[in-house]
Amino acid sequence: VAIHAAAVVMALVVLAPFAWLVISSVSPSTELLARHPHWIPDAPTLQRYRQIFSGKGGGSDVAANFRLAVGNSAVVATATTLISLAVGTVGGYAFARLRFRFRRTTLFAFLAIYMLPPIALVIPLYLALANLGLLDTKTGLIVTYCSIVTPFCLWTMSNYYLSMPPDLEEAARVDGCTRLGALVRVILPLAKPGLLTTAMFGFLLAWDEFLYSLIFTSTTNAKTIPVAIAEFTGKYSSDFGLVAAGGVLASLPPLLLALLFQRYIVGGLTSGAVKG
Amino acid sequence: VTAASSTRRRAGRRRGRAGVSSKGEGRFALLLLAPAAVVVFGVVLYPVARTLVVSLYDVDSPMAGSYPFVGLGNYTRVFQDSAFYPVLGHTVYFTLVSTFLELALGIAVALLLNAPLRVRWLWRSIVVLPWALPTIVNGALWRWIYNGQYGALNGVLSSLGISHGQHQWLGSPFLALNMVILADVWKNTSIVAFFILAGLQTISSDLYEAARIDGAGAWRAFWRVTLPLLAPSIAVVLILRTIEAFKVFDIIYVMTGGGPASGTQTIAFYTYLQAFSDQLFGYGAALAYLIVLAVFALAMTYLRLLRQGRLAGVE
Question: Does ipTM top 0.85?
Fold first, then answer.
């Protein structure tokens, strides 16, 4: 009984801010700006969501720009995840199963890149992207994000392979498979849980990125949802309703993914280090 | 030559099948790692080198042209900069307090999630939520909760009859720093709890059984059995969270913009201001490299622990 009471308290502390985010997004401005907060809105409205989904976008229509920014985030995070997962899955296998010179040094080099603070790279990267005509493009963001998410995928996939029994590929190679054949036909299908968990972590990493997007994007062409929300929060600090609606949309994809893969997270953390 | 090398290659492959060759493995490893190397180092190598070069010049434009070379001048300037020390203080305070609170609360939550709760998946699903919430949304949400006139925090205090004032939670420097830490802790305790939970699940229940037979109560068993066995997980969490906290930028940007009175400026945020507001690119680059050094020192400690196998449970 005591532990269930503690669990309920914990759930309240976790869920209350989420509830307030959702409630704020459907409360009319007059109620949001009341002398005392209306915990349950008298006249809930979906007006802001309608604005977000029906506005034309571009220009000064903040609501519609939220929709475009979520779209940009989805494209950028998905592409980043697919590319990083592909190269990380292949490369991680080398770290887990092959012996070669500078193996440890190479692994450390990748991990070091992952730990670099973006502020140290952002200015020269900006200049490089400008030279290539990739500023304010989704391509520019994807290229940049892959350099962060790939080391992460390498590390977690490598740890996942290590947790698999090595006899599998030996058996496959006795049966005449080449090394590559064994990896593609035997190991990868069995590594599915690892692949899915790594993909989820990678997607969340890309979805959450802020500084690069802040500096590299300027229009709805590529601006991602964290930047759109931060901008609007700064400009109109007292109208939270629209920020809340945008925040709900920005949070749905990562929240759903995390819920879907919740039971894999513990296993994923046991087998590899993860951005905390 | 070709014939000889192809014979050698064939021999290597044959030995590779037996699992002894390292030459064939080396080539295969190169093939497997090449795509990742292109994707990562193709992007970061130039900026890493460029920032290092810029940090050695007295540059006030991002384009290093004919600017005076100052050697380590920008680095020594950091330590003569009177604005730097308060910033370092905020960063260290943020890092220590947030990491400690996240660890303490994370252990408590993990123990709870590991306890025989009914509908376990439900509680775990709830705890995972703050971690998945985007950092910027988290910052914007808490900024709104802390709002002095309309915020939910003042509303809750008033509803509970604790206080009816309009407290400006982000209005004074030190209070604001603590409130930002609180928002960070609310979000990141989540992933810490999952880290610790992963560690808890590797502890065999026989050990608790043995402790119980020895007459140890739950409290004693926690200190004598659980905590020592959790040490590897705790070490990993401590270092990873310390690195993240030391680099903190996003939540500061959206919640306070470094204010009030620079009271919530952290090193990463200060570096950003030097480069983007004051156009001191050389100085900013030197600051950035000092963060890199600090982060690498932490990371090396982490990797050394991993290599020594002290973190066997987590490897």
Answer: yes
